[in-house]
Write a structure and sequence with these properties.
The chain has 14 helices and ten strands. It has an eight-stranded parallel beta sheet. It has a two-stranded antiparallel ribbon with strand order 9-10. It starts with 6 loop residues before the first helix and ends in an 8-residue tail after the last helix.
Amino acid sequence: MTRIPTAVTRLLGIDLPVIQAGMSWASSSSTLPLAVSRAGGLGVVAAGPMRRDDLVRVLDEMTAGTDRPWAVNLPLYRQGADEIIDLLLARRPPVLIASQGGPRRYLERFRAVGTQCLHVVAGAEHARKAADAGVDGLVVVGAEAGGHPPPTMVTTQVLVRAVVRAVPDTPVIASGGIADGAGLAAMLALGAGAAQFGTRFLATREATVHPEYKSAVVAAGVEDTRTVGHGLGLIRALDNDFTARMGRLEASAAELDVRRKEFQASSLKDAALHGEVREGKVEAGQSAGLVDAVLPAADVVEHIVTEYRAALMRLPMPTVTE
């Protein structure tokens, strides 16, 4: 078994510093998380859009399907979050990844049942507060990320380094713009203990999104995403008819209510489940331009490790001169 030991792998009990992002609909099932955890990384169930009964079923499948660590991602702003917290406390997932809220809301209760707690942050100040609260680790999301990038739009490279310097004793997972082993090597060089891969795992056989969604990710170039929804809940998505209309409204400084109506008329669910890739919110990161095939998730993990080793071999070693 290949192992790449880091502060994050030691914390979570995983072999490889490869974290699959919790992605609504794409990993709101057990299929993708199980594949990633079995391959040595950390698979993550996206609880955000899930009904309670569906989440119970998936938690049962995760528990029965692997003895390796896995995680549940919970956006704290979701409707019924307190009920989901109570459910997770009873089921004791190995790892919780929480976002969109403060860690004091949940931390002590999950620590008491033995769940490792990671918190998603988008800046050094937020990271300090979460570290001071006592979280076990941080997921640092930069501007290149799909879904919800930081409003400041600071790049992953700069943001990760700033957070590592701000909280040097807290394990950090880098997220945003990372699609292969060279990206993993770069993030470890910055001081992170792992990288989180979202868009790369969208284009896998196990991701439970429509084939048209996966095809759109594979076809995209690095310049084919756009951020829209400023003041409404910023997202990064693939360029399509929806983002073009939103872009025109934002460029013309249209009234907030007008922009909100257009923004809410489109949904991630339509794109992910029904293949509506022209009018839906096809959330994906800039790293879509580095993804060129739909593969089994275990193959993606294996390729990341191989590419990581190759990246290390390309680095020049220092020489001593007189």
